Amino acid sequence: MANTAQARKRARQAVKQNAHNSSQRSTLRTAIKAVRKAIEAGDKAAAAVIYQNSISTVDRIADKKIIHKNKAARHKSRLSAAIKALAA
């Protein structure tokens, strides 16, 4: 348990920050699932539009360092490749 006032405050802040970051990660997962759902439906045009909206979410969360930038790049790359594969 935190003994000093500073440590108690940091513990309170950590709880709030953890809740915020968890919410942001949930938003990220939802955005990725929306793209995957559009890809599974087979509509390339709709998938491309949803992909563009999702990419801004992924980048924003990576910029805030909630996920690593390489993880964001990996998600974007794999989703883009899946959309491109729809034509074939």
Automatic annotation (TrEMBL):
The keyword Lipid biosynthesis does not apply. InterPro entries: Ribosomal_bS20, Ribosomal_bS20_sf. Gene3D superfamilies: Ribosomal protein S20. Coiled coil: none annotated. Residues 1-28 are annotated as: Disordered. One of its GO terms (molecular function) is small ribosomal subunit rRNA binding. Belongs to the bacterial ribosomal protein bS20 family. HAMAP family: Ribosomal_bS20. This is Small ribosomal subunit protein bS20. It comes from Undibacterium parvum. The lineage of its organism: Bacteria, Pseudomonadati, Pseudomonadota, Betaproteobacteria, Burkholderiales.
